[in-house]
From TrEMBL:
Lineage: Eukaryota, Metazoa, Chordata, Craniata, Vertebrata
Metal-binding in keyword set: yes
Keywords, sorted A to Z: Iron, Metal-binding, Oxidoreductase
Record PROSITE patterns: JMJC
Gene field: Jmjd4
Protein name: 2-oxoglutarate and iron-dependent oxygenase JMJD4
Keyword Oxidoreductase: yes
SMART domains the UniProt entry points to: JmjC
Subunit structure: Interacts with ETF1. Interacts with the ETF1-GSPT1 complex.
Record-level Gene Ontology MF annotations: 2-oxoglutarate-dependent dioxygenase activity; catalytic activity, acting on a protein; metal ion binding; sequence-specific DNA binding
Family: Belongs to the JMJD6 family.
One term under GO cellular component: nucleus
Gene Ontology biological-process entries: positive regulation of translational termination
């Protein structure tokens, strides 16, 4: 991030206040970015990341990726022989798309070689199988394979570069920076499955995406407040089940071709349908531009839990603590863990400022953490952390063992923010 882009981003958030970005009607279409040499990081930040709008990057952006050469046959189909040879014994998560449980699909785990045997049978049968439609989903390839092999023959980065190279546009990636720092499961996934299964890059095959801007998904909810399993279902036209459905606000449709990269902005509800046999790489990510959205989401999740168990508030000891436990089981994170997430990122940004451009956490480390980016991030961290420490439910969290204490970390960020004005 350069000085001008940082200034633009800071002005954007000053004007926007604490509101959630990206609401309202869908844009007319999704921008298609053709040439890498003509599209800068600043272009992405100002044109798409700040306004929270989707875009599609052409296959030219991923032409050098190893997975596009090795995982795909000359005919553009999955190279099962290579995948079996490279990853056949790796255990992967597989969802059954034919069964719906609590608005999702049940999962099982199996060796990749067993899943590929199923997939080949599915193709040979013309798109059917007695086992139903199975979809390889949420495979942590980078942490599960790369890191384990690094113990024997090289670094995780070397194995990762065999698969793909992180695009510069997504280099400010707090979720994976956090998981890598702690050595826990990352947020980089591989998805693969046959035709008909339900930031994403298609390695091969085609996908159809249906995208809804933040807030527009509310019109899809049924009379119990539940989002539909399938947004194309005819049941949406039943006004008794879906009293708020607005047919005049259709989804934004995108067909993603092989090699193309789709940026799905924060808070955009979406549904995906495989049009061909498809393999894709997907990243979930958070950074300073959508951190406030994440905090807003967590507050909503806690409120939903509190409503569900509200009848036991007066009779259950430590009711507020139990709400945090339930929230974590449903959302994967609670207020305590969100603070630790902020703390890890904040301490790394403070270290960048202390070391300067040539520090070990600077641009040479490949994290995209120049001084201007670190300064911008500190501003966003300070604003969100100030809201966190003032939240009544966070004040009920036992922070006695936290180091630093939340108010102390906030003071460090605010002091650093003053110092960044001269950068």
């Amino acid at each position: 991030m350069d000085r001008e882009t940082r200034a633009t981003a800071e002005q954007h958030f000053q004007a926007a206040g604490a509101g959630i970005r990206g609401g309202g009607l869908a844009p007319v279409g999704v921008a298609f970015i053709r040439e890498p040499c003509a599209f800068s990081y600043a272009d992405f930040v100002t044109g798409f990341l700040l306004p929270n709008l989707p875009c599609v990057f052409s296959s030219a952006f991923t032409a050098s990726w190893g997975c596009r050469r090795r995982w795909v046959t000359p005919a553009g189909k999955p190279d099962f022989e290579y995948l079996l040879r490279k990853y056949g014994d790796v255990v992967v998560p597989v969802a059954n798309c034919g069964i719906q449980e609590y608005n999702s699909n049940p999962k099982e785990h199996m060796p990749l070689q067993d899943y590929i045997a199923y997939w080949q049978e599915y193709i040979q049968r013309g798109g059917s199988s007695p086992r139903g439609c199975l979809y390889l989903k949420d495979w942590h390839l980078c942490s599960g394979v790369c890191c384990s092999r690094a113990l024997h023959r090289g670094s995780p980065a070397e194995d990762l570069e065999d698969v793909f190279t992180l695009p510069a546009y997504f280099s400010s990636d707090w979720l994976n920076e956090f998981s890598d720092a702690l050595g826990v499961d990352d947020y980089r996934f591989v998805y693969a499955g046959p035709r008909g299964t339900c930031w994403s890059v298609n390695i091969c095959g085609r996908k159809k995406w249906l995208l809804f801007p933040p807030g527009q998904e509310e019109a899809l909810r049924d009379n119990h407040g539940t989002l539909p399993y399938d947004v194309t279902s005819s049941t949406l036209m039943d006004t008794h089940l879906h009293p708020t459905h607005l047919p005049s606000s259709p989804a934004l449709e995108v067909v993603q071709e092989a090699g193309e990269m789709l940026f799905v902005p924060s808070g955009w509800h979406h549904q995906v349908h495989n049009l061909d046999d498809t393999i894709s790489i997907n990243h979930n990510w958070v950074n300073g531009c959508n951190l406030a959205n994440m905090w807003h989401f967590l507050q909503q999740e806690l409120q939903a839990v509190q409503r569900e168990v509200g009848q036991w508030k007066d009779s259950m000891p430590d009711w507020h603590h139990h709400c945090q436990v339930i929230m974590r089981s449903c959302s994967g994170i609670n207020f305590e863990e969100f603070y630790h997430f902020l703390k890890v990122i904040a301490e790394r940004r403070l270290l960048v400022l202390g070391q300067g451009e040539q520090g070990e956490l600077g641009p040479s480390a490949g994290l995209g953490l120049g001084l201007q980016q670190a300064a911008f991030d500190i501003g966003r961290l300070a604003e969100v952390l100030a809201s966190v420490v003032e939240h009544p439910d966070f004040q009920r969290v036992d922070t006695s063992m936290f180091s630093p204490q939340p108010w102390e970390l906030l003071r460090q960020l605010e002091d650093a923010l003053v110092a960044t004005r001269a950068l």
